[in-house]
Task: inverse folding
């Protein structure tokens, strides 16, 4: 049963106000933000410091105006995007915080999970714990549905998946014996009808949220699968692994069933820890324990750009809604912001696109270069960043009855 917190005691700490230091405040440090430049890639970086230990998760929120992070130091923190300053610090768990996530539809709450075996929902403004639930072991991952109504979490002791009502904290479903080893990620599909999990047992599973049944298993990696992501338009699904590769599945056409997934490799020299699609699905970013941050052109399945800056493992990566910024979390206790506005102007990127037969045009709005396929409508004169302001996304219902009938009962073959 969840624990509902009704008293006024709060583990919230705001760095904007001074107060006596107590035991619960010892994680507070002065935050700092500095700009840096990757001279090889010509990409501006902002270094954000304040956590006292490794940062395990990070994401944009509040219409890209804030950044939410979770750390091994036992805190979650809210940062201002423009200044890089720490707005709020939440002493959320007694031990390491594995992740903190916020729904795009409800930005007044966020969920966190930790080594203290707890899943907690927090009020962003007051810092009050609204409810908490528990697992038998360390909560290795947590996710929140896109509509903000449900939370999913998983334990590393019994490999159990739990689904919670985000408003009440009541557990609505428990799935046991799903994997044979620790779950490394659990995420909702774009239309919230499936939960996708990855595991140290080298498998990925799609769970029907209504029935709790495993409707699809993928097993295309030869080492631990550390994470996954699904494009919002429903076309692409990606998994990343300690085998140094990313597997890209075209789930809209189902081509992976007969041809297997597309493999993205070579640009990571070590284990890949996380991956994330841009909002329009045209790019994928991956981060790894090799300290490399790699941006991929999804449609052409090629490397676009490799960036470096962190001094220890990259734990999490995320695009912003405008997809002109990246944010990364690292074991080096820092967060980095990466400005991608000038990425398409880098000579190496332009040469790669030309070699693929892509047209390089100048956007009539922002005057920056962008590429299109030579077969595309020649009247296209606006780059993707300018088009993003007007574009409305729709989610393809790739789980329709006819589609489900064609899902394979066993994982597709290895490449």
Result:
């Amino acid at each position: 049963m969840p624990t509902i917190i009704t008293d006024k005691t709060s583990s919230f700490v705001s760095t904007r106000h001074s107060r006596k230091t107590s035991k619960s405040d010892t994680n507070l440090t002065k935050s700092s933000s500095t700009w840096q430049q990757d001279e090889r890639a010509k990409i501006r970086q902002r270094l954000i410091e304040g956590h006292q230990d490794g940062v395990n998760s990070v994401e944009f929120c509040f219409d890209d105006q804030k950044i939410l992070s979770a750390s091994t130091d036992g805190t979650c923190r809210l940062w201002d995007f423009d200044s890089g300053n720490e707005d709020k610090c939440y002493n959320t768990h007694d031990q390491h915080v594995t992740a903190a996530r916020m729904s795009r539809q409800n930005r007044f709450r966020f969920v966190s999970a930790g080594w203290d075996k707890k899943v907690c929902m927090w009020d962003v403004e007051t810092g009050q714990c609204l409810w908490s639930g528990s697992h038998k072991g360390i909560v290795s991952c947590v996710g929140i549905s896109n509509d903000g109504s449900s939370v999913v979490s998983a334990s590393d002791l019994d490999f159990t998946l739990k689904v919670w009502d985000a408003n009440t904290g009541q557990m609505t479903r428990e799935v046991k014996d799903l994997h044979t080893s620790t779950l490394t990620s659990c995420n909702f599909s774009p239309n919230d009808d499936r939960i996708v999990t990855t595991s140290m047992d080298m498998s990925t599973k799609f769970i029907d949220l209504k029935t709790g049944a495993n409707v699809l298993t993928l097993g295309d990696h030869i080492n631990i699968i550390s994470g996954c992501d699904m494009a919002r338009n429903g076309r692409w699904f990606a998994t990343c692994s300690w085998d140094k590769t990313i597997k890209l599945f075209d789930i809209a056409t189902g081509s992976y069933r007969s041809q297997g997934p597309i493999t993205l490799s070579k640009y990571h020299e070590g284990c890949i820890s996380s991956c994330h699609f841009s909002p329009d699905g045209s790019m994928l970013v991956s981060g790894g324990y090799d300290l490399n941050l790699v941006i991929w052109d999804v449609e052409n399945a090629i490397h676009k750009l490799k960036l470096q800056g962190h001094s220890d493992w990259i734990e999490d990566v995320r695009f912003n809604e405008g997809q002109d910024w990246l944010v990364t979390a690292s074991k080096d206790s820092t967060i980095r912001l990466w400005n991608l506005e000038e990425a398409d102007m880098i000579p190496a990127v332009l040469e790669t696109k030309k070699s693929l037969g892509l047209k390089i045009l100048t956007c009539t709005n922002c005057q920056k270069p962008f590429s299109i396929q030579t077969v595309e409508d020649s009247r296209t004169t606006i780059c993707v960043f300018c088009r993003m302001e007007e574009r409305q996304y729709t989610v393809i219902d790739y789980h329709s009855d006819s589609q489900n009938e064609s899902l394979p009962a066993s994982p597709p073959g290895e490449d």
User: Anything to note?
Assistant: Residues 74 and 94 are 6 Å apart (CA to CA).
